[in-house]
Amino acid sequence: MALLTVNDLGKSFAAETLFEHLTFEVHEGERIGIVGANGCGKSTLFRMLAGAEVQDHGNISRARGLEIGWLTQDPTLNPTSTAFEEVMTAFARHEQTAQRMRDIEEQLSHCTDVTEQCELLEEHAILDESLTIAGDDNFEGRARATLASLGLRTDLHDAPCGTMSGGERCRVALARMLLTGAQVLLLDEPTNHLDLEGIEWLEEHLIRRRGAALVISHDRRFLDRVTTSTLAFTKEGPLLYRAAWSRYDELRKEELVARRREYEIQQDYIRKEEEYIRKHIGSHRSDQAKGRRKRLDSLVRLSVPSSSQDMMRLNLTPMRRAGDAPLCIENLSIGYDGRVLVQGLSCIFEPGERIGIVGRNGCGKSTLLSALGGKLAPLSGKVDLGRSLDVGFYSQAQIHLPLEKTVRDFVHDMRPKWTDFEVRLFLARFLFYEEDADRPISQLSGGERGRLALSEMLLARPNMLLLDEPTNHLDIPARQALEDLLKEFTGTLLVVSHDRYFLDQITQRTLWIDEQGVRLYGESFGPAERIRRTAVAQQRVSADTAPKASTAPAAAAAAALPAANAKKRTPPKSKRRAVATIEADIMAQEALRDSLLALLQDTAVLRDGPRVKDLNARLAACTQRLADLDQEWGDGPST
Questions:
Q1: How far apart are CA 382 and CA 327, in angstroms?
Q2: Which letter does DSSP use for residue 10 in this model?
Q3: Which of 238, 270, 304, 352 has minimal Cβ neighbours within 10 Å of its Cβ?
Q4: HEC readout, 393-435
Q5: Distance from C-alpha of 537 to C-alpha of 525, rounded to nearest angstrom
Q6: Angle 531-483-46 (CA atoms, 0-180°, nearest 5)?
Q7: DSSP state of 305
Q8: Are strands 380-384 and 327-336 parallel, antiparallel or unpaired?
Q9: Among the listed residues 369, 361, 358, the one whose alpha carbon sits nearest the alpha carbon of residue 195
Q10: Are the beta carbons of 599 and 613 closer than 8 angstroms?
């Protein structure tokens, strides 16, 4: 049964058509990723699905009794309510839902119309599913646990929402949304303002959650983990693919190659026909030439396919070589307002190294980058940049651009000897085309201002880049363009980011900050994360199997106990065998998951709708089993 049905939907603003002829269905268990360039209509689609905006044509059908949860990028909260109180409002509808179910049951007891019976039973099933999604009745515990899992500090749970930052309010709104029990979630950039742990928790929650979800996101790793389908807003219109982002990206590139080949074949045909017409019109073959011209005039011309050419292309060779002097950090401690965030850090970064800095929100990543860039004085220790290091520092929070100037004038003022053509060519490398170059900076979006600030920094051609969340507000095409640009950079790079895909593309080592301190891994994010997880797992096993340390008084008390009780306090060998069994089950389920994912990336399989649905169901069951095993393993088996 379709929860949502969209048929021939279209929307325009003034003379600009956002999209048209959009048709798709949303079924229970589906998680659809919505991707496309900023401004293509993704958020507008969500407003229409939520009933907050009217479409120009087409229709949206919703299952009777369907509840839709909508998370916007700028959620509304009661400024006088605490975070906990706001999240608790998610449970207010549950009693209303239960009462409506009782009313339906009463109606069914005396309803004789078959059509009405079917409608009531369908609504009852939808409402029952809503209560199932909502979960148990431990509302207060679940509210606080969800807030904590999304990275909101415990001391903020009872703080008024009006005193919180924008990112903190977004986390409160997301927690409230996840606990509503809505059968369909519309999540607009849900990973914004989440740290790595929060993103990973959200991924697992959405995978386990019943119901359906539509997710607008530029986080490609998140899309790959969570979604089962991709609705892509392209230049040719919205297209639905039964695949997560990476596989969709491959299919899309294959399509573009095929379309470019078709375009080139047609262009070759047109050139030959035009040459024949030019050569033979007015000759003894004039009739054939006229016939060919008539056919050519009626030919449907293929448009030039979009391609990967829309990228930032820039010579990033530093103005001067950094030399052999490394970046030396010696016994560095940083913080502010009397709070120490990082303490006793010592390391050396050689010229040309590419370091990713990761960790929870508030752990000191941005503060560390500011200290390395000379923007913040350390509490103790020192940073030696070397005499030949030219530092380029980028921070979304420290963008200062002349809002009254146009984009073109801004670049021209920095390079007055450039011609207008050279300025526009440079701006095109940062995805500013034609009329975009003449827009005032005040009219640019956050992502566009970020790209312009990057262009300003890179015009100086430094030999060390310090980038603080450079992908914030960038859509996927812009992130891919930035990745290609940074891959060509030959200087030293240190970047703070929560975008795991981005980090794996451009970094070589990972500086991880957590409660235990700072650790430097010799790998990019993905391998470093696996090493870290393995170390944590080994610590858990050691904690389960190692004898517990005790003080002398406690040991004496244990010796005074009866022998039977003392025996119960000794960890049995069977527990260690149980741990091994659980780990074997985890390995088997991971192998099954990998094989299912491989099948779901097969082009032939993706054409078989029923098989894709079955494989996705098996993948969801496998993922749930893995989550259960991981929980069992983390808690330790019972004995």
A1: 11
A2: E
A3: 304
A4: EEEHHHCCCCCCCEHHHHHHHHCCCCCHHHHHHHHHCCCCCHH
A5: 18
A6: 95
A7: P
A8: antiparallel
A9: 361
A10: no
β-strands 16-27, 2-13 pairing: antiparallel
Contacting residues for 593 by C-beta, under 8 A, at least 6 apart: 619, 622, 623, 626
Q: What is the Cα 168 distance to its own chain's centre? A: 18
DSSP string, 312-365: -------SS--TTPPEEEEEEEEEETTEEEEEEEEEEE-TT-EEEEEESTTSSH
Closest alpha carbon to 232 in 256, 211, 208, 202 = 256
Phi then psi dihedrals of residue 180, to 5 deg = -70, -30
**pLDDT tens digits along 458-506:** 788 888 899 999 988 788 888 888 888 888 888 899 999 999 999 999 9
Six token digits for residue 581: 């069994």
Which of 207, 225, 208, 227 minimizes the C-alpha distance to 216? 227
**Contact 179/91 with Cβ under 8 angstroms?**
yes
Residue range 199-222: mean pLDDT, rounded: 93
pLDDT 10s digits, 38-78: 878 899 999 999 999 999 999 999 988 888 999 998 888 99
Looking up tokens 């749930």 gives 624
Comparing CA positions, the residue from 549, 626, 542 lying closest to residue 583 is 626
Handedness of CA 201, 204, 207, 209 (dihedral sign): negative
Backbone φ and ψ for 300, nearest 5 degrees, come out as -80, 110
Joined together, the tokens standing for residue 594 give: 């990998």
- Taking Cα atoms as reference points, which of 257, 29, 72, 52 lies closest to residue 176? 72
38 Cβ contact partners less than 8 Å away, ≥ 6 residues apart: 445, 447, 475, 478
* Residue-wise pLDDT tens digits, 215-227: 999 999 999 999 9
Answer for the pair 206, 110: CB distance below 8 angstroms, yes or no.
no
Identity at 553, one-letter amino acid code: P
The strand pairing partners of 26, in sequence order, are: 4
362 φψ region: left (φ > 0), alpha (ψ -120 to 50), beta (else): left
SS3 473: coil
Q: If we measure between CA atoms, which residue out of 395, 458, 383 comes closest to residue 427?
A: 458
